[in-house]
Amino acid sequence: MKTKSLIPAMCVILIPILVSCYEASPFWIHLSSDDLSYLVFDKDTCTFYDNTSFSYYDTAYYLQNDKDTLRIGVNTLTHTWASMIFVDRAGGETHYGNSDNCRYTMSVSIEREDDTLELHKTFGVCYKNYYPNSNSVYFTCFHYDTWNPDSTVFIDTAKVLDKTYTDVIKFIDYAPNFYTKINFAKKYGYIYIEHLDGKNLKLIGYKKRR
User: If we measure between CA atoms, which residue out of 41, 71, 34, 69 comes closest to residue 55?
Assistant: First the structure.
């Protein structure tokens, strides 16, 4: 009888200890507001305690070549990688223009394995070109990976359509035969893209559709 009475008491003692250990475990991945600012959605913080994810949909409006309004679908999602009961990696990504009718496809993705390590980020921009007198297409793409950088970046401010953006990532030394400028602003995504032949894309804003 005494043994049976000890079991509930031990559970009462051990459960809070185990919970506190799990909460303090480095395997619970936390994406900070700064991490999430690279994605285009309205959450400021997110801690992953299980293998759940979420998905958001927006519409981005751009001024194309200073005359036409271009509407591009935007999808942001997060995901986790779990080993046993722990979440050991968490990340997210935003994709622009996955429709076949869209000439622009852009993306940004983030991934964190440990709160003490640098956030892994990748950026990509592609433009669909058509061969003269043909239905065949080819893509001119830019890709940047913080783990394997092949171009130079710097942080600055930028003014696009009378709006001033801070924390703007400006890419240089990339696709010099096609793009001349690619500007990415935290919380706003791609705000300005300029081509060598003068074509350009300027962010007007977003409309939520979720």
Answer: 41
Does a structural domain hold residue 22? no
- Owning domain of residue 80: 28-208
Q: What is the pTM of this model?
A: 0.78
Q: What is the pLDDT of residues 31-52, one digit of tens each?
A: 788 888 899 876 655 655 555 6
22 phi/psi in degrees, rounded to 5:
-65, -40
Judge contact between 176 and 183, C-beta under 8 A. Answer: no
Residue entry with tokens 């309205």:
42
Cα dihedral value 144, 148, 152, 156, nearest 10 = 70
Distance CA 62, CA 102 (A): 12
Is it the case that residue 69 has pLDDT exceeding 90? yes
Q: How many residues belong to the chain? A: 210
Alpha carbons 149 and 142: distance in angstroms, whole number: 12
User: Where are the extended beta strands (E) located within 65-136?
Assistant: 68-83, 86-96, 104-112, 120-130
* Total tally of structural domains belonging to the chain: 1
